[in-house]
Amino acid sequence: MNTVRRAAAALAAVAAVLGTGAAGQASAAPSPTPSTGKLPAGLYGTKDPTYDGVWRQSLAFLAQRATGYQPADQAVEWLLGQQCADGAFPSYRADAAKPCDAKTMRDTNATAVAVQALAAVRRQSAAPEKADRAVKAGTDWLKSVQNEDGGWGYGAGGASDANSTSVVVGALAATGTRPTAFTSAGGRTPYDALLAFALPCTDKEGPGAFAYQPDKAGKLFANADATAAATLAGLGKSMVATKASPDQAPACTDLSKPTSERAALNGASYLAKALAKTHHLVQPPMPGAADTAEQPDFGNTADAVVALSAAGASKQALPALEWLEKNSGAWAKESGPAAYAQLVLAARATETDPREFGSIDLVEQLNAAGPAPKSPDTSASSTTGDDDEDSGFDVWWIIGIGTVVGVGIGFLVSGRRK
Q1: Are 238 and 415 in contact (CB under 8 A)?
Q2: How far, in whole angstroms, is CA 268 from its chain's centroid?
């Protein structure tokens, strides 16, 4: 979940690296509305929001609620204003007064993360009924563009990928909707789609990992970004997941009949091994880049920390979190609010104080990136947000966790609290 990974331009670059057909789909789709230069009031961050305006705003909301703050009404109103009449959200539209049309690129990732964010802030917003309607409309739109295989691509009608499908599952988690009940016309669920991206434990290059998409020949290649996202989704959790207990090192096990829970734990096993040596993930050079050296991937390392903690592997996640505490300051300052939000959520997932993240107060930096939020809710823990937004989802998930225990893992998935 890089800060702008879900933008159309970033998707095209990823597709070029992976050799998939997604680049063609992205280039053929309508482009996000370009920024006019002057940023609107209420928006977080100072950089061009063309590809990540809704994304970074939504992540900021989730991180603020996770630390007890309520976003300013002006900021919530801006996000609500980005929604199209059909319920979808684009990556960004500069003129929200102009209705969305056929040229407006609806973005499943932006829609799903906005649904999560609005579900988290609606209770304390100035217009809770309006937020409720936006959440329902967004969820309904996601249902309307679900692919036959049960998953989602970046744009409506695009081939399903692990990342897009996972962020939609996170939206379902935030709204108390069972992914198994969110079926395509052919009766396929989001988990059916995710399992199609899971590599077996016998794979030599990426045992237990998830691929972003199959390549043109149908072969799967391990992708750490997709694995972090799909691990959370397979556990029925969103990006605000917290530490699960008991803590236990993840192992990779192939079942004769794969399950999403087992695939998620296999994904955690892959992430633990990927982080074991350097304590951070790496990103390959962009196509055509002069510098061909691999660089640390701060955003996906933060996501891997959340995924491991949610899978009951916080011990394996802590070295990566400590590496982020020492090394992520310059990256977060350059990247902006979404990066600070990712680090806040990683700290929260490991029960680390985000106000003392190395030498940085992540909460202060995030809050300073947009309209001043409302003061923390002193009646609730500062490391949780609204505690009843998605409780319905947890109830059925805890009941079903016997499936995981049945395969000898011994994990108990903790309830999520926003």
Answers
A1: no
A2: 16
**Exposure string for 99-123, b = 16+ CB within 10 A, e = fewer:** ebeeebbbbbbbbbbbbbbbbbbbe
Around Cβ 332, how many Cβ atoms within 10 Å?
Answer: 26
Q: Cα(135)–Cα(58) distance, rounded to whole angstroms?
A: 13
Query: pLDDT per residue over 328-360, tens digit each?
Result: 999 999 999 999 999 999 999 999 999 999 999
Q: What per-residue confidence (pLDDT) applies to 289?
A: 75
Name the one residue in this structure whose structure tokens are 């309006």. 130
Instruction: Give residue 10's identity as a one-letter amino acid code.
Output: A
Q: So what's the pLDDT on residue 2?
A: 56
Nearest Cα residue to 83 out of 8, 6, 138: 138
Nearest to 154 by CA among 4, 305, 297: 4
Q: Are 237 and 288 in contact (CB under 8 A)?
A: no
Contact 251, 269 (CB under 8 A): yes
363, 354 contact by CB (below 8 A): yes
Chain position carrying tokens 């079903």 = 400
Q: What is the pTM of this model?
A: 0.84
